[in-house]
Records
---
Amino acid sequence: MSRVARLGAFIVATLAILAGGVFIIGSKAYLFRSTYQLRTQFDNVAGLAAGAGVQVGGVHSGTVHSIALPHRPGDKVIVLMDLDSSTHEIIKHDSVASIETEGLLGNQYLAISFGSAGQSDVREGDFIQSEPPLQMADLLTKASGILSSSQVAIGNVSQATAHLNSVSAKIDSGQGSVGALINDKELYSNLQRSTGSLDQTIVQAQAGVTDFRENMEALKQNFLLKGYFKKRGYEDSSELSAHAIDRLPQGAPAKAFTYLAKQLFGGHDSFKLQNQKSLNEGGDYLAKNPFGFAVVVVSSGLEGDSQKELELTEVRAMVIRKYLVEHFAFDDGQISTLGLGKQSAATSDADSGSIQLLIFPVGSEVPASEPTPEGVASRATIETPAQAKGGGSAKP
Amino acid sequence: MSNLAQTEIAAVRTQFPSPRSSALVSSAAKVVAEFFEWFGNLGIFAWQVARAAVTPPFEWHELVRQLDEVGSKSLPLVALAGSAIGVVISLEARYSLSRFGAKSLFPATLVYSVIQVMGPIITGLVVSGRVGAGIGAELASMKVTEQIDAIEACAINPYRFLAATRILACILMLPLLTLAADACGLLTGWFAQSLVEPLSFHQFIESGFQGATFNAFLPPTFKTAVYGLIIGLIACFQGMRTRGGAEGVGRAATNSVVLASLFLILADVVLVKFILVVFP
């Protein structure tokens, strides 16, 4: 390699390094990009210097060109910055400039927030709003304020603790009512005695309630009140559901007897049997033939209050069951009642409802009675086998 | 001897210092005079070189030879010195920065240390050692063998032919050598760091030059032209005023290096302050 060539290579190489450095720094200072200038003003720039970075949305997008002190005491410090042209679409008139610090002790830089969509564009040399910088000194003042108020709070807490201490000491030494409660054995034995006598009282009260029930029973048999219960058809409301089931068992009945309520009971809301003889056929069947299970199903017509009609059907079913059990010889555990309440068009007589005696063959499953709140509703929607057959009941 | 005579002698002795102390004063005065004389001669020499350098004919061929001598041939040495400095700063800076929890400032610390301080001064000292001694010894041996007189007899201005070309070569080459030293220092600094803790070169450059300005880069680099002037001027001056044979040559070479390095560091004090004031 000749001397000149070697020298040339050296010069070219080192100048390339120079160019590289110039371009690296130049790109940081936005010297080789198209820029525009904006201005903002602060009361205090907190040490921001010319050449500091400008970040838009956290992206380095420009540099502080110069900082000028005001000429009059009332004015503000003006910061002139060069911004990359690409930020022109983001920075609007309502963008806000603020002075931030990288880390706790790092360089200071200017941060500009995005503008709102509707705002007008900024032009070369425009002023944008600013936010006063957060300075360490301010932060320390605030922190010391917080510290002193927390000191007061801690003082209060320790006072409260001291009070608590004296209170618990008093309790421990048996002073005051709480102290007595905790420390006095007599109080405990008193309490024990009271509990014992309370037990006795409860036993006595239970005996009193039993007596009262017996008295009430006697009263029902009294001639003054007997008429009412007789008219009502049952003495105790628990009788109504004693043999009631919720729904009919699965499977078809072996035999069904159907009666009109009008025939059996006469009046619309009566539950005294008038024409008992017509039940004898069913009773005879029960007495003479082996069967698994029988149900007295009673429904009423569409007239009247639903709740009352439901009660009426239950009472009627009970009355019929009672008649059958009393007059015919069969196992009374095998017969149940089912009051359906109001049923639409169950029989030809929509007025007063119908009565069915359904007899199921041997081996039929007895449906478990479930006293649920929906019992009434489910009972009301059950189709009787007669209905399922389209009203054509299998008359014997 | 009478008392009166003794008194008179004592008076005379106090009036005139002893021969020993007078020799001390005269030698001190001689040193001071030599010091100023040296500066005066340097000034005259600098003036003659400057005048010779700006008047034609220009010694282009000799200039290229000297540029090669000072520039390209110093490059390996300067690159090696710069690389070593990069590694040293990398090791030192990481240790001290991590003690302050400011590890993220490492790239910036390395870039600023190398570009602003260590690159220029190390280049100056290395070149003053290599080139200053070479020029001093070369010119001194030409002087003692009366070659310079022979050149002058050929109607060639030795200031133009010998001194101006060398000084100009130093002035032009030192900034370029500094750039090479900076580049090597940054590369090896990054390399040393990434061996310990992975750091991409791109990120290193990005965060190292964060907030860097031309004032942080160009003045410290081009101030080394002043170093070049000092090295070239002192080495040529020491070489061309040599007296005596081989001993004088050795003295000239030593003085060139010592004085050039000393003035270079002293000049740096002034230059740093000057740059801080003029290029804030």
Note: Confidence is low (pLDDT under 50) at residues 370-396 of chain A.
---
Amino acid sequence: MQPVADADYFSFLGLSRRLKIDNAELEKTFYSLSRRLHPDYFMNASEQERQSSIDRSSLLNDAYRALRNPVKRAQYLLSLEGYKEAEKKAPSELLEEVFELNMQIEEMRMAKKMGDTDEMAEARAELEDALASLDKKLNEIDSRLFALFDQWDESLDNGAGAEERKTVLDRMSELLSHRSYIRNLVRDIREEVSDVR
Amino acid sequence: MSYSDKVLEHYNNPRNVGSLDKKAPNVGTGLVGAPECGDVMKLQIQVNPETNVIEDARFKTFGCGSAIASSSLATEWLKGRSVDEALEIKNTEIVKELNLPPVKIHCSVLAEDAIKAAVRDYQQKQSETEQTEEAAVNA
């Protein structure tokens, strides 16, 4: 086995950097490695071996957590491929929408604070409409993301050049950033409309 | 995590909250965001086209206290500066002034990005106005 410090999650689990992963298969690998690395088996081993089993078990848990979720998996792949921070550029329409909806959330909060029930009902209805359209957007983003997963895997399979792979990764990074804006917004709106007082 | 006194001060008494007329030719608007935390920051400047000096600045930020404080401070610093001087404001100065911890440095970067975006928007509007004026003269 390679030293822990050099291992990325994919290679640690014996995987290539493909993004389409069979979760049932991944789970099997996880459980079988968990058993093999379990610190209980190393009770009588040397201090060094014991420490190494602890390190590997913890790496295994991190790896499983990061790879089992498709979005986290894509984020992890991007970080491995040198995308250090989330893509900040967002289309201005998206930023406008995020800004406007935050204004509406603020109106809802104000209405609650003032106990203005008419205003509250109106704001709630608007936010619920927005939520429905954001959920739809999220679904669209996810299907585009999964299409990119296929493209990425194909590019690995047919040994595509660095440039072609970078194009796929750039688009993935951009899409994940849009997804993140929408996810945060959905979370904030849900919190506001579910909180009935 | 605890905020520094200066962050709290801006958070509790934010300066220059609000908006300016987005469509006015002498107003530049910068709208930027941070995808990880979902923060969005809108910063606007109103410039005197004769002197190129920023006469007014407004902001509206949805985000954490540090993001609000960074943009509030930025509007304070912008007023009275020329457009070129505005571009010289560095996020590190904001970090220093507000004692931002390392995990909040991105908030100051966001404020710097917002300033640059607002100035860019203003400059673009100006060059468009000049072009229309030239076209009018040449017509």
Note: The mean pLDDT of chain A is 90.
---
Amino acid sequence: MTAPDSGATPASPAAWEPKVLAFCCNYCAYAAADLAGARRMQYPPNVRLLHVPCTGKVELEHILEAFEKGIDGVLVAGCLEGGCHFLEGNLRAKRRVQRVREILDEIGVGGQRLLMVNLSAAMAPTFVERVREIVETVRKLGPNPLTTVKPEGAKSE
Amino acid sequence: MIVASPKSVTEVKEIIAAHRKVLFVGCGTCVTVCLAGGEREVGIMAYAVRMARKLEGRPIEIEQVTIERQCENEFIKDLAEAVDRNEAILSFGCGAGVQAIAERFPKKPVYAALNTQFLGILEEQGVWTEKCQACGDCMLADFGGICPVTRCAKQLLNGPCGGSTPEHCEIDNDMPCAWQLIFKRLKEIGQEDRLKKIRPPKDWRGSSHGGTRKIVRNDHRI
């Protein structure tokens, strides 16, 4: 799987807009996003949806690769706890997300850039609300620090 | 199997701080099974170290390869070309694997990415427990298949001690008393009589107390 290339060289800070990748479970979040669209509900265009069969399919490497490629934030959207189509995929995803947050904190990217949410296919308003939440969180945090790091040898101002 | 646990990203980053091009070598045997040093774990650590180094303004190039067994030259020799391309090697094998690679490539720095912990088994997904200390003189036949050398905190051969509760070890309430387990097991298999035998102090020379061990089997030598 390849994360969308957000472009490692961001535009000027004033023009910067957060780019968020949302791993959306087929049985809930993806359907909720579809419902939000059908209802003409507005949510920030900063989010790219990535359709997955279950959040249990989302591995640590997938999230880490997205951040390495320069994404500013990641949302993992799975079914309500107890409601996973595959019984416990979302519970596994929850533990993996927690582990990735720890890694992101440890290396300095920041675990707050990663959020997991649980919702059902009927919860389009919740999906919209959560997307807004992660986009606003990331907007406050600023760009992924990996995209703003100065090249080696560059003099600091 | 040999059970190991990964070092933290921070520690690994410090260990290889002086290098700009490093070969991460996973091992496909024990440490893959205990989810510490297989292909996936190598990949995850590589992501983390690459990002951390980039943020420090000192990017690192990481090449990843996982071989079937790091403790055998037959598999290690295939690394030669990759080793030549890199400044240093970070081994995700157990202590034996790290040293085997270091012996094979004496001119390259070889570092360990894992903490080798013990000989143990998978108790449940994500949980491993120690079962053997490789003491070199197995006494399991006398103890119903439960090792007091490993599983009794005091390594008593004539237990239990006075501190055990009926079920648990006095040093940790979550740890079962090995002697309680031995007694139950021997009773179940009708061998309680084995407990009447007083065992003399164990000869520890066959363990690491006698220096590094070596086994030579002439019948298998070529």
Note: Residues 1-8 of chain A have pLDDT under 50 and may be disordered.
---
Amino acid sequence: MIDEHLLDDLALQNGLLEVDAKLKLAVGIGAILIGVFSPSPVAPLVIAASMAVCTIVFAGIPARVYAALLAIPVTFVSMSIIVILFMTGGGEPLWDVHVLGYTFTLTTDSANLAVLLLSRTLGGMCSLFFIALTTPMVDIFSVMNRLRLPDEFVDLSMLIYRNIFVLIGESIAIHNAQVMRNGYSTFRRSIDAFAMLAGMLFVRAWEKGEEMLVAMDARCYDGKFQMIEEERRISATGIATATGYLCACAGLAVLFRSFRIF
Amino acid sequence: MHIMEGFLPSPWWQIWFIVAIPFLVLGLYQLKKLFAEKRETIPLLAVAGAFVFVLSSLKLPSVNGSCSHPTGTGLSAILFGPFITSILALIVLLYQAIFLAHGGLTTLGANVFSMGISGPIVAYALYVAGKKASLNTFVNVFIAATVADLFTYVVTAGQLALAFPAPAAQGGLLGSFSAFLVIFALTQVPLAIIEGVIIALVFKYIIDVRPDILVKLNVLTQNTVNRIREAAS
């Protein structure tokens, strides 16, 4: 039912946990930006490969889990790529398709654009997985605090984070109870069961919120959570490796800027 | 429907961030005011945000085999108003990117605009209008949630069409807009209808168990609740 792995669970036991969160975020976001700005598919593909290796080998994320994650964007990407292949044009025609009396033409420019987008999405997703799988949310909160984001926003994020796990537990319990009573045996029933689950989840969540209010009042909450931050020293080699990596990727993007497949 | 990381080229991903920012600032301003006036809303908003996240990570009963998730922001807009929903949606979308690998960081602006701003505003406006016209509460909620979902998907198609317009011979911007609309309709139209039905039923269950919450949030008046409960019994 909740079919996705919560990446945070994996992030909390990954091999790069001790590396400073700011450094990991900088590498991930830097790679995403280089990928988005790269005019050719070379740099994003290299980023995708290096990020995947880094996440699987150094962070120790099981390759099977990683492959399952890569399947998530497939539906969206495949549907959008079809439109882009046949609706954008320019360049030499490569292939004609006749559907219901209409002719759609695949051209070199649209094929290049599709390849570029595929590689950018792949590079971007791999960089995002790198952040998601190596940096636990708790570390990101302290970075958010350092960046002086509004306190209300950071506090709300932390409370939401904490409650997500409570509610996931509740929903799994309700779902199991419903399955045992044939709640999802037909389509009609599953609609009703799903709505009942969501409704009860809301009521449970609300009651948790009311309880939390009492608990927070009892502990003199005054609108700001105090966080204990672990100081992790950023190592010089870490900074050097990160800078070197990002420079190499940016260099590839510039070097291969006019590279086209078709 | 989330636009995946890396899919929107420059300058479009920057543009959608800029478009989304005024709404988020307004939402943050309302949030600050709410926190200062009624401190007791903080934990409640927190559970609401968590609820939206968990709801959007549950798999809907599917019709055509595609894996579909509700957006959940329609419900939040009806309960808390569109601007606070935009802040909740921003946090939820960030978590979806980082926890579930749905969406992305550069496309966050575009996704917040389609799912957290335009959909909720439509849901809220329709719900308020329906309430004024004293429409049946469940029909009203169904319409608001369904249309908000459909509108979200139309906006997403528009965002993609703007970034990737077709050449003039194939209808230009409108050509690629309609192409994206048609191809996403396969999954999004059934999804919107199912989500509408489910959100309306969720309302029924909340009214059954804790109608006082809805009264407190000014979603329903006590009279409406009494009338609905009488009709049910």
Note: Residues 12-232 of chain B form a domain with the Arp2/3 complex 21 kDa subunit ARPC3 fold (CATH 1.10.1760.20).
